[in-house]
Amino acid sequence: MNILLLGYGKMGRTIESIAKSRGHNIVGKINEDNTADLVKYTGGNADVAIEFSQPDAAYENIRYCIENGIPVVSGTTGWLEKKPEIEALCQEKDGTFFYASNFSIGVNLFFKLNEQLAGLMKDFNEYNVDIEEIHHTEKKDAPSGTAITLAEDIIKSIDYKKKWINKPFGKKEDLIINSLREGRVPGTHTVKYSSAVDDIEIKHTAHSREGFAKGAVLVAEWITDKKGVLTMDNFLK
Ligand SMILES: NC(=O)C1=CN([C@@H]2O[C@H](COP(=O)(O)OP(=O)(O)OC[C@H]3O[C@@H](n4cnc5c(N)ncnc54)[C@H](O)[C@@H]3O)[C@@H](O)[C@H]2O)C=CC1
Ligand SMILES: O=C(O)C1=N[C@H](C(=O)O)C[C@H](O)C1
Questions:
Q1: 98 and 112 share a domain?
Q2: Environment class of residue 29 by beta-carbon count within 10 Å: exposed (0-12), middle (13-18) or buried (19+)?
Q3: What is the pLDDT of residues 56-78, one digit of tens each?
Q4: Average pLDDT for 121-125
Q5: Would you identify the family this protein belongs to, as annotated (predicted)?
Q6: Which band of pLDDT confidence, cut at 50, 70 and 90, is reported for residue 27?
Q7: What's 48's domain CATH number?
């Protein structure tokens, strides 16, 4: 498979190494210093684009791919207010767009665990729930996309939480996401329910970026013959 990498930073490099180990060709690597080269690529010479860039670049990269017939797998966080526009464009152009806030299989199991725990906790108002996410100091966005997914899934079940906020303190109706930036941490997420008498915690700790990158390559292999707007739920089924 011929893969175009959009974003060749920490994730782009890890994806390159996993893709090559699985027999794929990297036909292009676009970074902030060679964005003009993107016009060289179309669905004719790239089977799929894997897009891990930065919040202010994702929308234009993905739009270019959809308009030029390149199926696109994106994991960039911090740009999601524009995702509905991309989804509409994908439908209009009969393109292929796959987005996940986290491509690791472990985190996707953790998402399911979070949904189930929220379902169990919904009638126990003596507990308060909050989320902590810890990432490396180079991360550009806060809160993490993964923490937002966790928060949205909790709010669906827990009536006393109305919205998430990215501050360490708030009212009971606010689901607090506390974002910490430390050293080179690849990504740690904790969901904690606290009462006066006890705490219940679930936690996912990434040991490296390999889980994210392998998930993105597996999805890229899977989507090349698919159309439409796709998610991890489609892939994991
Ligand atoms: N969904 C997931 O599973 C994961 C998502 N991420 C997200 O992926 C993104 C990238 O993460 P990292 O690789 O750690 O960041 P990074 O900062 O190491 O790399 C980002 C790269 O994007 C490049 N870039 C800037 N403008 C560009 C443009 N217009 N076109 C193409 N490339 C451009 C930069 O030159 C840089 O090399 C972040 O948004 C991060 O939150 C990271 C890990 C897992
Ligand atoms: O920027 C990162 O590094 C990560 N970003 C994603 C996020 O914002 O959730 C996924 C992972 O936690 C690593």
A1: no
A2: middle
A3: 999 999 999 999 999 999 999 99
A4: 96
A5: Belongs to the DapB family.
A6: very high
A7: 3.40.50.720
Between CA 153 and CA 164, with CA 158 as vertex, the angle to 5 degrees is 60
Q: Are residues 45 and 35 in the same domain?
A: yes
Q: Which domain holds residue 182?
A: 105-205
Q: How far apart, in whole angstroms, are the C-alpha atoms of residue 149 and residue 72?
A: 21
The verdict on 225 and 142 lying in the same domain is no
CA of 180 to the centre of ligand 1 (A): 19
In a shared domain, residues 144 and 196: yes
80 CA to middle of ligand 2, Å?
14
Active site residues: 135, 139
Nearest atom in ligand 1 to 101's CA: 1
What amino acid occupies position 8?
Answer: Y
Considering the domain architecture, whether residues 155 and 185 belong to the same structural domain is answered as: yes
CATH of the domain at 189: 3.30.360.10
Confidence grade of residue 116 (pLDDT, cut at 50, 70, 90): very high
Query: Ligand 2: which residues within 6 Å by Cβ?
Result: 77, 101-102, 135, 139, 144-146, 187, 212
Domain count, the chain: 2
89 alpha carbon – ligand 1 mean position (Å): 22
Annotated binding site: 75-77, 100-103, 136, 145-146
Nearest CA to ligand 1 atom 5: 75
118 and 94 part of one domain: no
| pLDDT tier, 154 (very low <50, low <70, confident <90, very high otherwise) | very high
Ligand 1 shell residues, CB under 6 Å: 6-12, 30-32, 35, 52-54, 57, 61, 75-78, 100-103, 138, 212
ipTM for the predicted complex comes to 0.99
Compute the distance between CA of residue 219 and CA of residue 74 in angstroms, rounded to an integer: 10
Question: First and final CA of the chain: distance in angstroms?
Answer: 23
| Ligand that lies nearest to the alpha carbon of residue 212, given by its number in the listed order | 1
